[in-house]
Amino acid sequence: MNGGVSVSGGERSGAGTRSAAKRAAGVLAGCLTAPAGLLYLLLAGVPLGAFLLWPRTRSYALGILGSGARRLVEVERRRRTRFFGDRFPEAYGGEGAVRYLAARSWSGLVCGIVLALLGFGLVLAGLLAGGVVRGTTGTAELLTQLVLGGVLLFLGLQGLFALTALDARLARECFGPSERELLRRRIDELSVSRAAVVRAVDVERRRIERDLHDGVQQRLVALAMLIGRARRGGARDPERAAELLGQAHREAQEVLAELREVAWRVYPSALDSLGLEEALGGVAQRCALPLRIAYEVAGPLPRPVETAAYFVVSEAVTNAAKHASASAVTVRLAVAPDGPLTVRIEDDGRGGADPAGSGLTGLRGRVAALDGVLRIDSPIGGPTTIVAELPCV
User: Fold this and answer.
1) For the residues 163-183, what does the mean pLDDT come to?
2) Can you list the alpha helix ranges (DSSP code H) found in 176-275?
3) What is the spatial distance between Cα 85 and Cα 15, in angstroms, rounded to a whole number?
């Protein structure tokens, strides 16, 4: 039952080589665009210098300077998107664009100088190798040149890596959300997911209370009444008392079955003892509809991920059986290499599921608590497809 998508080592190596070459081309392109930005700042900034210093004309001068800087910054944004795969919103003008263009131009020029020095070092290495072949380079000179060249190569590569990291950080601060903004968004997401989990827990508690009150409690009352009637009429009509005791015995068995059902909905013990696959097998056994489960997960999953996946499947299957008038349900669980666990539930019911309903809202909160995503597609007339992606890290 295990499965997945396998990628050969040669394909991964080829993809990695292409990605490295693409990034290297992006770094080289950044070195070529940097002089244009610096030249614009010099040609446009110097005449506007006096207006930039005067508070009354500063905003107008910044607008003029930013309008031209915007075009050059847009080139940088497209370069980051084309060669590095970054996805940023449209670039903006004004003081932010001018500040980015100034920092980016200087870092690009320094990066170009570092690349030029590395190229010059390669030329010197070639001349040194030629001297060794011709026998004109002695051993002492060779060792000295190798040590010096190795140190300069190390420093050059470290500087190049630092400058490329600076380029990415400048682009992120200019085009995308800053680190402070990302932290604020993360705090907001955690606050929302925490509130959703609290609401889901409250909804689950109310559902359990309703199941116990309307189901188990009523059946226990009926069981007590049957036993009481059997006790009171046992001396006068033993046959009737035996019949009542038989009814009480059947009622007790049904109460036990309903208690087990409630306990399974709260938390299945098989999830801890046997694992997710066996726990889902229990869902299939108790489901009133034909349920087909494809479990394509090779290795163990984190316990919170298993729990969330189980409840997503259980709730979706229960909804399909109770509300969708479905005749069959299909469940598929799969993990892509280094990817999330994808849980896909599809039924052939009438559709029209309300994503804002209490059950699906609780599932969304449970999934969001693990930084997962829950997608619901349920057009009128069906089918209904629920996909949950749960990170396994």
Assistant:
1) 77
2) 179-211, 218-233, 238-266, 270-273
3) 14
